[in-house]
Design goal:
The chain is an alpha/beta fold and 153 residues long. It has one domain: Rossmann fold (3-Layer(aba) Sandwich), CATH 3.40.50. Strands 3-2-1-4-5-6 form a six-stranded mixed sheet, with helices on both faces. Helix 1 runs parallel beside helix 5. The longest helix has 17 residues. The radius of gyration is 16 Å and the shape is globular. The model has no long low-confidence stretch (mean pLDDT 87).
């Protein structure tokens, strides 16, 4: 059975995951460092990990199985999950797959190198950062997750 794992600390689509998981009768696990209230529904679990860096990512990567779904914006976590044959969705609804993870990692590393090479750019405000999360992103995510769960065996 498919399980949805959510890197929940900064995830803007926890409510959508909950509603869609319940509708499909699918277990969802919210993984965080704390600060999230447990959901009383029996299909929705909350796992609270230590405060250490990347503790939620380490827990998810060590638990996820082939065919599960992971919701995250964390690229290194996504790479580990793709390697374990799980499906990865970003909160904006875009999928991270074996076909695109290489270029996503390369872009991430390039941007980190560029920021390190130009320390003045690090404090330049919103220029060069990602756009704010929108209602359209939320809708694309809901549609993508619903489609993944509709296709499961």
């Amino acid at each position: 059975m498919t399980t949805i794992y959510v890197d929940a600390d900064a995830c803007p689509v926890k409510d959508e995951v909950t509603a869609i998981a319940i509708r499909h009768g699918c277990r969802a696990v919210m993984v965080c460092n704390g600060g999230i209230r447990p959901n009383p529904h029996p299909l929705i679990d909350l796992v609270i990990v230590d405060d250490g860096p990347d503790a939620a990512d380490i827990w998810i990567a060590g638990t996820v199985a082939a065919g599960d779904i992971v919701v995250t914006n964390d690229i290194p976590l996504a790479a580990k999950c793709v390697a374990s044959d799980s499906r990865v969705l970003r909160p904006d609804g875009s999928a991270i797959t074996a076909a695109n993870i290489g270029s996503i990692l390369a872009t991430r590393d390039l941007m980190a190198d560029m920021r390190a090479a130009d320390p003045l750019q690090q404090n330049a405000g919103q220029h060069g950062r990602s756009k704010p999360f929108s209602k359209a992103d939320r809708g694309r995510f809901s549609q993508a997750l619903d489609q993944l769960l509709s296709r499961r065996s």
